Amino acid sequence: MPAAPSRRQLSFADLGTPLDEATLVVVDLETTGTDPTSDAITEIGAVKVRGGEVLGEFRTFVDPERPIPAYIARLTGITDATVRGAPTIAVALPMFLDFAGPAALVAHNARFDIGFLAAHAAALDLGWTRPTVLDTLALARRVFHRDEVRDHRLGTLAAHVGAAVTPDHRALSDARATVDVLHAIIGRLGPTGASTLEDLAAAHRKPSAVQLRTKHLAEHIPAVPGVYRFVDAQGDALYVGTSQNVRARVRTYFTAAEKRRRVLDMLPRAERIDVIECATATEAAVRELRIIAGEQPPANQQGLKPEKAHWLRLGRGTEGLRAARLAREESDGTAQIGPLASHHDAQPLRDLLYDAVLGRGSALSRGALSRGPALRSGEHRESLRRALLEDPREVLDHVAARMRTHVQAGRYEDAERLRALAVTYLRAARRASRLRALAAVPLLIAARPSTAAVLGGRGWELLAVRHGRFSGTTLVPWGTDPLPFARSLAMTGLGETELAAPLCQGYHQEAEILLGWLEAEGVRTVLVEGTWQVPARARFTPEHLSERFARTAPSRAV
Questions:
Q1: What element of type H or E holds 53?
Q2: 344: annotated active-site residue
Q3: Which of 233, 293, 320, 355 could form a Cys-Cys staple with 372, CB 3.0–4.6 A?
Q4: How far is the C-alpha of 113 from the C-alpha of 127, rounded, in Å?
Q5: Cα 41–Cα 43–Cα 46 angle in degrees, nearest 5
Q6: Element spanning 212, H or E
Q7: Complete DSSP assignment for 395-442
Q8: Cα 355 to Cα 344: distance, rounded to the nearest angstrom
Q9: What is the DSSP string of 488-542?
Q10: d(Cα 451, Cα 119) in Å, to the nearest integer?
């Protein structure tokens, strides 16, 4: 069996992100008011820095699409004329997020600036996940005491540290001044042991008594990638997580940065922390998922119970559509879509499909969901099966026609609800299509480029999948023939075949992790038993909506 590459011992620098290596984006906003849910952004200014060096700057006015209050215009100098012709937030915010990338964000009174960014990102459905945030106001209150400064306003602090730029209530100027304040804070905190980004993020807080009391549990945790389990005196898992550096991640649970109540309540019961070292992040993610699903640790936010997933299923024989929580032995490959986000989606989807495929007002659109009325003919059954598995056009044409009727009658809310239901249908059908394709493959081994440190930053990550379940993984150095490693993987995980089930039912979360890996850029198939074909992206995707609904809902007059 080919030997796996030797694992590099991580250094102390791996225990966090050293401040001189951390990329920080210092941001400041100007707005029409103080409420992120009702007021608008008028200007964004940001400075990207690393190790004290300025890497780039970002500045744009933003059209708030409303009048700017007079007192705001006097304070900032930004008037309606200033922002005329500027991009709207729908254009400006994605531009800023692209500039910031994965960097940590820094702001003076971060609750205000980050609150506005988060609220507008949510309103635009950008799917933005907040990065690490540093608040120079909170940090300054710890560093600069009242015997040094009269207050902790940005102007006061900028003058105190000798900032090169005087803040003037304009976004880029204030961001530049905040950079100098930040560097002064880091200079003060460095000698106290704040040497990493994680240390700085928690520097203005104090750990709780229970965190200080249990901190010793993290002393001997190795700095390796893998899964960690907080365990009680009986050996039961209290909390499970995963990290590329388990030691660094576990340490954060004993700092003031950890505020989750379920975690703090768990710590007094913890007796030890077990670590399962993993070769890759994919292996760690799957192991974490399996442990949570099997042991149901009480401190994990949601214990995974895959057997309780909600599906919309076409029953056998003359049985119609019904909601189902399918146990593995029940899943016989019958046409079904899902898993759905909620059981509340099942009834509206069932009615939509009956109306679209069998005709509006059909008796089939009435009756209890769990025991739908019998189908009248094999043709009905085949039409529903096709809408679930093969072709969404009949359903989407029906939705488009009904939306036009609603819009013409001024019922815009009804039209929007129907559009959202169509998106739910498409996503559920595509989700099941992808799961079905992977579950049908007895064995798939694929490779993708890897920059893992253990490979010196260049090599291949191999992944083995059996019927939609993780079977094994390994790392292969660059320039080494991957086939011997693939054949070795093919000899492992044979027990996964016994757990095979249509649609990966019961294991769909795991299968979706694997699908995400397999659909990434640069993936190559190495060995396959059966047929593997990445599900067609053109089928069952929300892009179908743009084709049919483009002229359905004209702009409403304000």
A1: strand 53-61
A2: no
A3: 320
A4: 18
A5: 115
A6: helix 209-214
A7: HHHHHHHHHHHHHHTT-HHHHHHHHHHHHHHHHHHHHHHHHHHHHT-S
A8: 18
A9: HHHTS-GGGGGG--GGGTT-HHHHHHHHHHHTSTT-EEEEEES---PPPTTSS-T
A10: 35
> Per the structure block, which two tokens stand in for 50?
């690393």
Q: Count CA atoms within 13 Å of residue 193 on its CB side.
A: 3
Tens of pLDDT along the chain (558 residues) come to 444 444 333 333 334 678 888 999 999 999 999 999 999 999 999 999 999 899 999 999 999 999 999 999 999 999 999 999 999 999 999 999 999 999 999 999 999 999 999 999 999 999 898 888 999 999 998 889 888 999 999 999 999 999 999 999 999 999 999 999 999 998 888 766 567 787 787 776 677 889 889 999 998 999 888 999 999 999 999 999 999 889 888 988 887 768 788 899 999 999 999 999 999 999 999 999 889 888 889 998 665 666 677 888 887 766 778 777 754 444 455 688 888 888 888 889 999 999 888 875 554 444 444 444 456 667 888 888 899 988 888 999 999 999 999 999 999 999 999 999 999 999 999 988 898 889 889 999 999 999 887 887 789 999 999 999 999 999 999 989 888 999 999 888 766 666 666 666 667 889 999 999 998 889 999 999 988 876 544 466 655 555 555 445 444 332
Distance from C-alpha of 366 to C-alpha of 311, rounded to nearest angstrom:
19
Q: Which residue has the tokens 């890996």?
A: 517
Of 145, 169, 204, 344, catalytic: 169
Q: Are 266 and 214 in contact (CB under 8 A)?
A: no
Rounded to 5 degrees, what are φ and ψ at 22? -80, 135
How many CB atoms within 10 Å of residue 143? Answer: 22
Signed CA dihedral, 152, 154, 157, 159: sign only = negative
Distance of alpha carbon 446 from alpha carbon 533, whole angstroms: 12
Task: DSSP for 268-321, please give it.
Answer: GG--EEEEEE-SSHHHHHHHHHHHHHHH--TTSSS---GGG-EEEEE-STT--E
